[in-house]
Amino acid sequence: MSNVLTSVNITLNGQPMEVPSKGNLLDYLKWKGIQVPALCYHPDLGAIETCDACIVEVNGELVRSCSTTLKDGDVVKTGGSEVFESQMIAMDRVLANHELYCTVCDFNNGNCTIHNTVKELQIDHQATAQTSKGAPVNRGSFYRYDPDQCILCGRCVEACQNVQVNETLLIDWTLERPRVIWDGDGSTLIDESSCVNCGHCSTVCPCNAMMEVNMEGEAGFLTGMLRDAFRPAVEVTKSVETGYTPLMAISDVEAEMREDRIKKTKTVCTYCGVGCSFDVWTKGRDVLKVEPSSDAPANQISTCVKGKFGWDFVNSGERLTKPLIRDGNEFRESTWEEAYELIVRKFNETKEKRGADRLAFISSSKCTNEESFLMQKLARAVVGTNNVDNCSRYCQSPATMGLWRTVGYGGDSGSITDIANAELIIGIGTNTAEAHPVIATRVKSAQKLRGSKVIVSDLRKHELAERADLFIRPNPSSDLVWLNAVTKYIIDNDWHDKAFIEEHVNDFDALVKGLEKYTLEYAEKHTGLSKEEMINVATMINEAESTVIMWAMGITQQRGGSDSSTAISNLLLATGNYMKPNAGAYPLRGHNNVQGASDMGSMPDRFSGYQFVADDETRAKFEEYWGTKLNAKKGQNNHEMVDAMHAGELDVLYLKGEDMGVVDSNVNYVREGFEKLQFMVVQDIFFSKTCEYADVVLPAAPSFEKTGTFTNTERRIQRLYQVMDPLEGTKPDWVIIQEIANLMGANWNYTHPSEIMDEVADLTPLYAGVSYDRLEGYNSLQWPVERDGKDSPLLFTDGFPFDDKKARFYPVDWTEPTEYAEEYDIHVNNGRLLEHFHEGNMTYKSEGLTRETPEVFLEVSHELAEERKLRDGSLVRLQSPYGKVEVRTIVTDRVYGKEVYLPMNDSGDGAINLLSSSIADKDTSTPAYKETKAKMVVLERGGKSPLPAHNFRYGNRVPQNGVNVEAKWAREDYVFPGDVVRERRGDK
Amino acid sequence: MAKATTKIRRMEVDPEEVRRKELRELEDQLIAHKDTLNNLFRLLDQLEEHEVLNAANAGLAHSDQILTRVLKALGETETDKSIRNALLLVQGLAKFNFEDIEPIILKVNKGLLAKEERTGVAGLFKTLISPEFIEGMNYLLNFVKGFGTPVDQLKEEQGIKDAVHTDAGEIRKMQNYPTSPSSSSNGIKYLGLAGAAVITVGALFLRK
Q1: B159, part of any domain
Q2: CA distance, residue B96 to nearest chain A CA (Å)
């Protein structure tokens, strides 16, 4: 903090003043309202130093203000002929690379940095004419690069190299006419490179050089009209123009006109739990582009390919648009009235004749907080059962359990910025670069730019593992053992944080006793890790000022998932890595609103804010507010619901936004359960696999078509605004639930989701100060939120939420992984891919994503390939005791030995859950997806590779520090504009 | 005991019912915008009578090709240069103050209308010492002196600002850099000079 407050005394344009010493001069000048041209500078990228336009005079020297930090006594002049001449030289070089045809440019939307700079400087003519760089437009599925419009500012390269850290883009400064290239290993094409299409480059491009293809011919009034006439129109415009001023004026008018038809709406991404927010640009229902910005609290300028480009599903012709009612062995389309009448009749009949607990409700992490709140309110207050759950049961409940046991709150300890600023970042069982891509960017840049250390523990050598300073590969489901061993080693060496433990944690002795058997020798035997590897981990934690541990399904989806999560928290407590910035526990929530779905009480034993149903006082509060008596009996979770279907103890299931028949484990068992239900309602945007078993299917609306809030992995609550009206025939989930509730006599009167959130705030201490007003625009709140609106970016500041404010060590023991018969010799690891989301109901609707990765594939190791004579494209059958899949193979060094990797992105013959079992975490019933084994039968040795050659996994990254501006400066034809000016004036 | 099925029987739509509904919607729109539509129909009738609608239809149907031809023709026939010159002329004209130019025009008219008089040496001498001649000569001398005034001074006196233009700064040209602004902008400079000259002439004539 001291840096922020430090100031220096300078003279600025003759006036003495005190200015902050932190930050660069350009930012300060802009803050003071002094206009200095700057084209390459971007607040999220920092000084790139390529454009030279921001030259000012400091102590008599002409310098780039973007990279100048001030010191006491500096004399700064922002005007004068030398400064101006230097800036004009820089602008000339810029304009020699960019053709100004603003009126017929799709980027002419009021935010073009070049256009605005030329206008502000009142430049009317350029000395050096723009000329072609002699390379064609480079076109990918989602964006394209026009070298002749590129000013070589390097923002895109900086973003790719230092923010996203995919390290694909670079400027080839060795070319006579430099330009941006991809990978630089021969092809240089977007489509044949390691580009993951995250879109950072097109987001930060100051002009139309790097542009989303959906913008082409769509944004401008003239751009769609001009095809063959485009070039002649540009030539004639250039011939007749007498200067840029009229051109700017006309294009400004055209840009204003665009405001009438291009709508920009802030929303929150509907894919993973990072919670990226951005503006969506739409023309009618057409999505032109997604534009994240510095204002976005979780992601700033970052997105992944799905968030930036994966929205085709919204306008897919496969969307459900009419309710469906089962009629024998087929469905028939119906009216909403008829579907509602049937639902309400069946619900009421079952409730009256067989009791409320014969009905069950499953909410969705895809839906808003308000919708999850209403779903559990429908279950509890209208139907009278606590049989309500959500899909966090499949993934995150064990992490929450581990944190509840030890630190009291089941949420990330801090924000994504804390991960980015930690000295040591540990990732266990998380393929972060593919499952939470934007968080991975922060980890990678922390390592690359700030020297943070990264430890990865995983079965598979995924991208983050490849980059890690230390990559360890324990045996499957043995994480608890090495975690306990590392904790014990730290304590044995007296490296634990005794002061922190003394002041803030109970039960240290119990922990020490519980760790007794976890010696390095024991751990070595059961984890397959070497003692040195574990000592390395312990040493790195000990040496780091701050450590964060991120974990995901590799930990939670084990029989001992809750215990392993607990072991992580024990380790963090023992080393004092709670209650301070840049430290703590980060269970990475999988879906956009998996945190919120549980926060809102769609759980069998808790109301919103994790208030216990069994607690009389709590229940009385809800009863009074809702005006009805509530059921005190704990309900069934998802897993128990399926068992109850088989046992004939559950008659009715109402499920929304969840393809449970694909994503639950042991889906053959789940589907058989569906068949045994008396009545099943599924609410979705597509006719999913689960819909096939329904009696009524209701067409819902996706996130773009509704308002509400999502809560991300950082506990950050954010508003999403309605981008477009619900597709004709569909309704937002909250509207559907309310209509069903009211037909059952509930008499709810919500006219807007904000009223639902007001009710949540009234009933839920964790959300007490949350309101739509406080969440306006890009504002956000991280729970707990006090009534006055004070939120908690750092979760634990004043102790822990227990009576004595002290955390608790919770000793845990190892649950050995599921035993399989010897014939099941292949360990089937499973998880996400970057390009697709879960079963792929949304992402396979995108032509670009499907082109990148058209189908699921099985990663096999070189050893296994050699043993079974497999190659890319071989067709194999994996058979487990529970089912079989047929899938084509990819031979890769990402997996080892007899461990294979089957992504979860298939709802047909390759669906992973045809193999997985119903064995679950002993504490939360979360399926042990990661304890799946199978035997392999080779069906066809040849065959076409399931992964196209243009997939980014076959690219070759070219790491370098940013845009490598030094290479530009070293070119023979480059002289710093300030030096040109000084030479002209004979100063040198 | 619901078995999985993907078979969906679409709702039978009565085309007549749909038609009736759509017609009703259209009818509502027509009534709501009756006056506007009457005006629009009158306009359309007139456009039709003048073949405008047929021409517009044809033009729009082939707009890209037509536009390409027109734009290429503009370039090939140097029409684009004519347009540019016209625009420059318009910009130049903006610098005139026509109210102040009126006396100049009157004086030129007077000169043109003056009767041609033949005279001898004595007559010439008489003319030379006449107040009109002396005043006229002073006028013309000032005019000539005005031409001799540095352009920068004139711009400053008359508040004329140059258009901002960038400055070439490539290394390969560094050896040839003059200390004054780049030679590559000569065209623009000449243009500026021409404009300044026009203004100067105008200013001289402004003296009454």
Answers
A1: yes
A2: 19
